[in-house]
Design goal:
Number of helices of chain B: 5
Order of helices and strands of chain B: EEEHEEHHHEHEEE
Order of helices and strands of chain A: HHHHHHHHHH
Radius of gyration of chain A: 23 Å
Helix content of chain A: over 70%
Strand order of the largest sheet of chain B: 5-6-7-3-8-9
Oligomer: heterodimer
Radius of gyration of chain B: 17 Å
Number of helices of chain A: 10
Strand content of chain B: 25-35%
Distance between the termini of chain B: 15 Å
Number of strands of chain B: 9
Shape of chain B: globular
Largest interface: A-B, 24 and 27 residues
Number of strands of chain A: 0
């Protein structure tokens, strides 16, 4: 009975939180709409209603979905490569100090160099079609590497001693001890890197202009001073970003819960 | 008499402070050895030397007929994100299929015997006393030739101690066991133990 009461109170609390969030979003949408009407210049600012109408119009075209798909696919490949490479390099660096020392300045530079510099450099080396793949990889790699390495290095030495005594070695040690210690760091790294890779990938497309990409459409909107298009594509970018982050976070949460609940 | 563990003129210290000085001892295999002594006398250091977690500054530590070890440490040393059964099964990581299912059944019986919940919760959600019991079960159910216990029952109430010892003692019979404790009452629970006193850097047999 008490537990049912607690569940009810928890549900009420969650509903209230969502109601407050929605009210805040509605408030800013109204401010935006009023601002657009006050300025009354479509080239400078368009209201949310017009943006929504333009987005709905775009969403009925095949080109819109093809562009979203191409951008998502290329950035996704770069991101997944970064996750795999970053994890493998972190595992290697945790074992071999020379590798860790060698990689430290490389990862530091990757974090510090502006995206625009990377984009221009990469354009000299590869075709613009692969630009967003490389940029997503370059942006996500140091985040995944640094976080996973930190997770491995923070593994409780007491647990490793326990493994030594019980003879838990090799892959079993990785799977049972390191994985459970590194998983929270990995989860943070992946969600952080995903958002960054997506935004940097789109920025790269704006500079490199590969065909049928979101970046190309953003560039066109700028060139033709098509502000409704610019806003509509931006909203699409944000929606994809939020959706991706939510899906990946939930997926990882589910993996963690299943991992923890194994008998 | 064959020594499961032996120490020959062992010296061990930390940061210039001597903990064990010229210790020579033979821990007979197949028997239970209870080690008592004041705090800081070197009981844990002794266990760590025998487990191979420390190297002596001088002297020799020997093992005979002890290939596989199991140990409870002063801390629980559990994987916080894993369940009770996953933690207890950690030394049996390679079990698969029917063997794994059989061991899981044994784990469930063990949990019931010592009053541990055997569900999908990770052990970080358990109380200190419950975590301690998980650590004891992991040690006792390990496929080991020798057991090292470092104050395993510390902080447990009498009823829980009874339940734990009823489960643990039959499993130690005939196997080399070193049991560190402060509590003299624990002595009476063992059948014919070898009593050792660790004090002043020395390890002295009292039996």
């Amino acid at each position: 009975m008490a537990r049912a009461g607690e569940r009810g109170a928890e549900k009420d609390g969650r509903l209230r939180t969502w109601a407050v969030r929605l009210a805040c979003v509605a408030f800013w949408l109204v401010v935006w709409e009023l601002g657009a009407r006050a300025i009354d210049a479509r080239i400078i600012l368009v209201g949310p209603l017009e943006v929504l109408a333009r987005l709905a119009q775009l969403a009925t075209t095949g080109e819109f979905w093809a562009s979203v798909g191409v951008s998502l696919g290329r950035i996704g490949v770069g991101f997944l490569t970064a996750v795999i490479a970053g994890t493998a390099l972190a595992a290697l660096a945790s074992r071999v100090t020379v590798v860790r020392e060698l990689l430290a300045p490389v990862m530091g530079a990757m974090k510090a160099v502006p995206v625009a510099s990377f984009v221009i450099l990469v354009l000299l080396w590869v075709s613009s079609s692969y630009l967003s793949v490389v940029i997503a990889l370059v942006m996500a790699l140091p985040i995944v590497y640094t976080n996973v390495l930190e997770g491995i290095l923070q593994t409780d030495p007491g647990l490793l001693e326990m493994c030594d005594v019980f003879g838990v070695l090799g892959w079993d040690r990785v799977r049972l001890v390191y994985a459970s210690q590194v998983l929270p760091y990995f989860r943070v790294a992946v969600t952080l890197a995903l958002g960054l890779a997506w935004k940097a990938g789109i920025a790269a497309e704006v500079i490199g202009l590969p065909d049928f990409t979101i970046g190309e459409h953003l560039y066109d909107a700028k060139v033709y001073l098509d502000t409704p298009d610019l806003f509509a594509w931006t909203v699409a970018i944000v929606v994809v970003s939020v959706t991706l982050e939510t899906v990946v976070r939930r997926l990882l949460d589910r993996v963690v819960v299943r991992w923890e609940a194994r008998p | 008499m064959s020594c499961g563990f032996s120490l020959t003129n062992v010296e061990k210290g930390y940061s210039g402070i001597s903990v064990l000085t010229g210790v020579t001892a033979c821990f007979e295999s197949g028997r239970t050895h209870v080690l008592m002594g004041p705090s800081g006398s070197g009981k844990t250091t002794l266990l760590r030397l025998l487990a191979g977690l420390e190297t002596p500054d001088a002297g020799e530590v020997g093992r005979s007929g002890v290939e596989r070890l199991a140990m409870t440490f002063q801390e629980d040393r559990l994987c916080d994100n894993l369940t009770v059964t996953a933690n207890v099964r950690l030394p049996h990581a390679r079990l698969r299929g029917a063997e794994r299912a059989a061991f899981l059944e044994l784990e469930r019986e063990a949990c019931a015997a010592v009053g541990l919940p055997c569900d999908a919760r990770p052990v970080r959600e358990l109380s200190g006393g419950q975590r301690r019991r998980v650590s004891i079960l992991r040690c006792v159910l390990a496929d080991a030739d020798a057991f090292l216990f470092d104050e395993p029952l510390k902080g447990m109430d009498e009823k829980t101690v009874d339940a734990v010892m009823d489960f643990v003692l039959p499993r130690l019979a005939g196997r080399t066991t070193l049991w560190v404790t402060h509590d003299e009452r624990e002595l009476s629970r063992f059948d014919d133990p070898v009593l050792w006193r660790v004090e002043g850097g020395r390890v002295i047999s009292c039996s």
